[in-house]
Amino acid sequence: MKGIIVREPGGSDQLELTDLPIPTLSDGELLIKVETAAVNRTDIVTREGKSGYAKSAILGVEVAGIVEKTSETSHFKIGDRVMGLVNGGGYAEYAVMPANRALKIPDNLSFEEAAAIPEVFLTAYQTLYWIGKLKRHETVLIHAGASGVGTAAIQLAKQVSDAKVIVTAGSKKKLEFCKQLGADILINYKEQSFDEEVLQATDGEGVDVILDFIGASYWEKNLASIKKAGRWVLIGVLGGAVVEKVNLMELMAKYVQLSGTLLTPRSDEYKADLTKEFAEVVMPHLERGNIKPIIDTVFPIEEVATAHHYMEENRNIGKIILRQSL
Amino acid sequence: MKGIIVREPGGSDQLELTDLPIPTLSDGELLIKVETAAVNRTDIVTREGKSGYAKSAILGVEVAGIVEKTSETSHFKIGDRVMGLVNGGGYAEYAVMPANRALKIPDNLSFEEAAAIPEVFLTAYQTLYWIGKLKRHETVLIHAGASGVGTAAIQLAKQVSDAKVIVTAGSKKKLEFCKQLGADILINYKEQSFDEEVLQATDGEGVDVILDFIGASYWEKNLASIKKAGRWVLIGVLGGAVVEKVNLMELMAKYVQLSGTLLTPRSDEYKADLTKEFAEVVMPHLERGNIKPIIDTVFPIEEVATAHHYMEENRNIGKIILRQSL
């Protein structure tokens, strides 16, 4: 089969489409004939050789496709349309997926739409609910609102929890898009001081939950934006990883719960449990269409280098999808 | 009545025993004839004028005594022996206490023992269970093991959760005392590198929960000592409040949940809920005597300055109690 590997750690020029053996199945796994895979930041980190957790020489952590083979009795059968997280190996014609991590693709969704779901929606679900403990009618601040996880989180917070959703983004176009997804308060971080806007929008109280992809450069403003006993979920450091002079008394005085998290390196069991709960809570919304996967662009898999480059420029609103040639 | 006030923010020489009016009752409160009050670090901070949350000119946040008057029907009656948190005003002959925060003193405990319970045991309960989510048979690292909250936390973790308890303290005498309370692993932080000892005692995995009274000076070693997805509860900054450089990627990579907390400034409702759960879970242990209040010294209330000075020198193991003159 054809698949994308990284020749040497480095830029997108290191990506190569090459011939590889079809992966073999272990117990509890499905062999998927891949139709589509999504591009994730973790793929870029892996490509650059900065990731300690690549399990496969082939890039790609999420796919949509058709069940080609099952290793044991499961509730999936050959020919089923499925989507889900894989432990690497997604940028290829065939990939193996633990069966307890596969989700049936609703009839109303294409393979392109399906590949846009697992990573961002599971991450958004994990961070909002498992880590951030978001409750009905609470207020959440979602940074990078037009990003993959951002667009998923806005929809979950509105549709599942009827939350008040405050987003930040860097352009009017991105903010307008967030509004269409349901965001209530739009903040252009290039023109406004987001903490002041947050406090104004919450009667000076701050937000219950922060989804923070930014890290160091937003530290002080996030601390000012969070409510007493708020939950601050740290899932990215696009604005730097190192904060100078952290005053722990401030975390104590506001009873802040700061949780760092990642999804990709979590255990198989964790991902299976997360997928199971996601299927119960969120899949009905995807089937009804009131929560939608957000696609920016679909590239043929041969153009993977262009797709990576596109993501590195932060030009996308929603997901970048790779499609196997027809 | 007589009570202790602070003349001017400053040292223990500013404490003055003076004549004051007996406090008046509001709905839902009890008037307590105070037999004993305990000394807490928050009293010292208030005395120094560094506290933003002193509600009363009289020091003291916990007392034990006899119900003198009730403002409404409650399950307490005049003459009942009770203990509990007060919103200031504890260092006096009479104090008011919200009835939903009062605990009946078990027959086997003296007033001196009773005053040694509320603040440290409620704080230990709150931090271990409400914030730290300690589960049965997990491993907990308790710094300042011989402190008031430390001695309470060791006992709770062992008796309520059968946890593996690792403590740090600065002397052999203090560690020996922690061992008698049930601590499994004893670390002298002056002679040993506690993170290395913790990793050795946990097969390199680290602990599920850290109770951290120390803050900045222990930052790196706490980060090294915590397990993946561990809960790190920050309740004091005896080792400094400001961490020079915090690398957020380290919190993300270990899925750390860092929670700052305080008990004294929490709402009345919070304290009532905590007291209620504490009564159900912990009071039976105190009645049976398998969990014990730890008293270091009892001073007559006239010697309050000496009592404060004694606490400021960190010489105590367990609580310092003030007793009304007989």
TrEMBL record, chains A, B:
CDD domains: p53_inducible_oxidoreductase (cd05276)
UniProt KW DNA repair keyword: no
Ranges where the Enoyl reductase (ER) domain occurs: 10-322
Keywords of this entry: NADP, Oxidoreductase
InterPro entries on file: ADH-like_C, ADH-like_N, ER, GroES-like_sf, NAD(P)-bd_dom_sf, Quinone_OxRdtase_PIG3
Cross-referenced Pfam families: ADH_N, ADH_zinc_N
PANTHER family from the UniProt entry: QUINONE OXIDOREDUCTASE PIG3 (PTHR48106:SF18), QUINONE OXIDOREDUCTASE PIG3-RELATED (PTHR48106)
Name of the featured protein: NADPH:quinone oxidoreductase
The organism of origin for this protein: Oceanobacillus caeni
